[in-house]
Amino acid sequence: MVVDKLFGFKKKLDSEGIVFCYSGPISQGLVEEIGDVVKRKMELEDATLAIVQKEMNFYVLSGNLVENRKKEELTRCFSEPAGKDKEELKSLYKEKLKRGRMQEGKGAGLGLIDMARKAREPIKYCFRAMNADYSFYSSKVVV
Questions:
Q1: What is the distance between the alpha carbons of residues 35 and 79, in angstroms, rounded to a whole number?
Q2: Is the pTM of this model over 0.85?
């Protein structure tokens, strides 16, 4: 499954009334992540998460509706950690941590930088236009 197919997967789950589905080994960290996704689902009413295992890799796919006016800001956020090596990401993370909570529109947040640090490949993302006001945003992290 690739990141641009997440919306189709979401539509299939919605048509079956499935709010959450998981199959596989579970750890405390995974339980916390699932809890965060469920909380976000309740807040946004349109978050999607899929964890895919292919051979020795795990792919974490996530997506949700975003206002089209926020696409540029999200693209900037994902561009900031893109292309940086592990040491550069570590420095960026520490810099953001020292500055405290970031103001909106100032680049990638700690969570995104932390995901980029732990990922085996650069984070991939895409937008699928839904209407004039909203797009479905999807991302893929290989861990």
A1: 27
A2: no
